[in-house]
Amino acid sequence: MKEKLIEFNNVSFAYEADEEAPSEKKEALSGVSLDIFKGEFLAVLGHNGSGKSTLAKLCNAIFEPTQGTVSVKGIIPDTEEKADEVRRTVGMVFQNPDNQIVATIVEDDVAFGPENLGIEPKEIRRRVDEALKAVNMYDLRHREPHKLSGGQKQRVAIAGVIAMQTECIIFDEPTAMLDPKGREEVMQTIIRLNKELGITIVLITHFMDEAVQADRIAVMNKGRIIMQGTPREVFSQEEKLSECGLDLPQSTELCRRLGIKDTVLNVRECVEKITSMLGGAV
Ligand code: ADP
Ligand code: MG
Predict the structure, then answer these.
(1) Can you give the pLDDT at residue 94?
(2) How many CB atoms lie within 10 A of CB 254?
(3) 32 Cβ contact list (under 8 Å, min separation 6)
(4) pLDDT digits over 116-153, tens only?
């Protein structure tokens, strides 16, 4: 039986209405129910404005639901102590690494989170080294963050969360501002955290080729979750995805256009299908 880590139970959330247009108050999330299981890698897809970042901020008690409940390990963060407990369990990595880096030396930046938790210095040293190794940035620990590439900076930000030893990390479009190389570095890091350290991952992304690598995908549209399933289940529903403005991964799209019925998810599967279509002639 899979153990639930985060549980959304019929959650709605509305931002405070704009003073100039008070009647415009609309729900950013409406009746969302979603289980996030311990150890899984869940991707969340959805068009701009579909409610993904709002969902992320409800996971670690930045926001409180207008209706329904969000619980983390069974804890509903309705007091400051419980909210702190939730934040020690669920960490967040945002889109822009420049907004997340606070110190002028890489290793000091990674130490910032555990320092705030009141961890003793020797233990901080151990955690910082371990976290920097986990994101492949240990050799650059004495560098100045502003001189690093976007992908390297984002990996420093990830190390900062790892050093707090949260069980779950929510990544809100962590690769959106990176070049292809930085994107690949960050994706490899995320996968390693999940597979090797067993950290539960929620990856919010608009890159289909990233979502394909998750165990499970939830698709959002207009504040609701409209689909949940394995990547193969989700990407076999081309029409439903296109209705909410989402594309297929490139390999999936190519095979679909070639008239291949099975849903293909990556280059390897695509090559296999085309090879067998050509009677193994290539
Ligand atoms: P996504 O991350 O999928 O792009 P968001 O969760 O940021 O979506 O936004 C969901 C909805 O809430 C959108 O309609 C957006 O305009 C609105 N929204 C987001 N942030 C705020 C805010 N701070 N104040 C008012 N409305 C907001
Ligand atoms: Mg967002």
Answers:
(1) 93
(2) 16
(3) 8, 10, 11, 12, 51, 55, 68, 223, 224, 225
(4) 888 999 999 999 999 999 999 999 999 999 999 999 99
Residue 46 beta carbon below 6 angstroms from any ligand 1 atom: yes
pLDDT of residue 41: 98
Instruction: Catalogue all structural domains in the chain, each as residue range(s) with its CATH number.
Output: 39-61+76-232 (3.40.50.300)
Task: Identify the pLDDT of residue 24.
Answer: 66
Beta strands in the chain (DSSP E): 4-14, 27-37, 41-46, 67-72, 90-93, 168-172, 200-204, 216-221, 224-229
Residues with a beta carbon under 5 angstroms from ion ligand 2: 52-53
pLDDT in tens, 192-242: 999 999 999 999 998 999 999 999 999 999 999 999 999 999 999 999 999
Res. 47: pLDDT tops 80: yes
Q: What is the CA radius of gyration of the chain?
A: 20
Residues with Cβ within 8 Å of residue 163, at least 6 apart in sequence: 110, 111, 113, 114, 124, 127, 128, 130, 131
* Residue 15 beta carbon below 6 angstroms from any ligand 1 atom: yes
Model pLDDT for residues 75-106, shown as the tens digit of each residue: 999 999 999 999 999 999 999 989 989 999 99
CB burial class (10 A; 0-12, 13-18, 19+) of residue 259? Answer: exposed
What is the residue with the minimal CA distance to atom 15 of ligand 1? 49
C-alpha–C-alpha distance, residues 150 and 80, integer Å: 34
- Cα separation of 88 and 62, whole Å? 13
At 201, phi and psi to the nearest 5?
-120, 130
What residues have CB less than 8 Å from 212, skipping those under 6 apart? 231, 235, 249, 265, 266
How far is Cα 159 from Cα 155, in angstroms, rounded to an integer? 6
